[in-house]
Amino acid sequence: MKKEVKEMNKYICLINEMYNNNIRLHSPLQSIACGMPTALLEILCVSDGIEEVISVGDRKESIGWILYSYEMVKNNTEYYKTKYGINGYIFSDDGAGNVFVMKEDESIYLFNAIEGEENYFAKSLVEFWDINIDVVPNSLSNEERADNLVKKYGFDFTRISKSEIKDLIEKEIENYQDGSSEYIRVLCGYLFCIGDYEDAELIERAKYNINFDVGCMIDREWIEALKGNMSDEDKQAQIQAFIEYYEII
Question: CB atoms < 10 A from the CB of 194, how many?
Fold first, then answer.
């Protein structure tokens, strides 16, 4: 057991160094799951998922998952296997709608749902995080990133994780990628469709705290609807307009 803990700490130390100590660990996975690659289990048995965080005043706020929790790995793996026929374990993503897949031999591939392609990325988790130190996560254009979001989530709003959408918005506000406003607009549109009163504030921050172009692209009506300043009928019309606009992608 001591040897295993030493190896697990190696992974977590590497992650911590990469993210400049801005990570959040969780309680260890209590029940050992069979069938998952050893490299993933070793980390999950120390921390059931690892989040990237930022300092907001005197507290730390999550802006995304570096390594999914066991439940997230299980659910995403099942989803991608059913929808795309992917074999392997979905354990993380690149923040642009593409997911990382670990195979049985612990090699890692990046899956692009738009192209329906898996591309080799790394031979192990150590190489994976070493590579990520030098990789610009959002190498795609904002239009391509928006396309990936629509392809990934679709319009079955009961299946979309609100916390995941909010994490992506927070991350984009913190590190906005120059270019068109399409990516942040799609994210805010999804939050409008699945959100409620408390989510209006985040859309407002995206609309007013990035730049003029983003402010123009994010609909004020979404904020008003979530605040209750719009009839249910008009809100549903706004949701339908969002769907119809992006269904053509």
Answer: 18
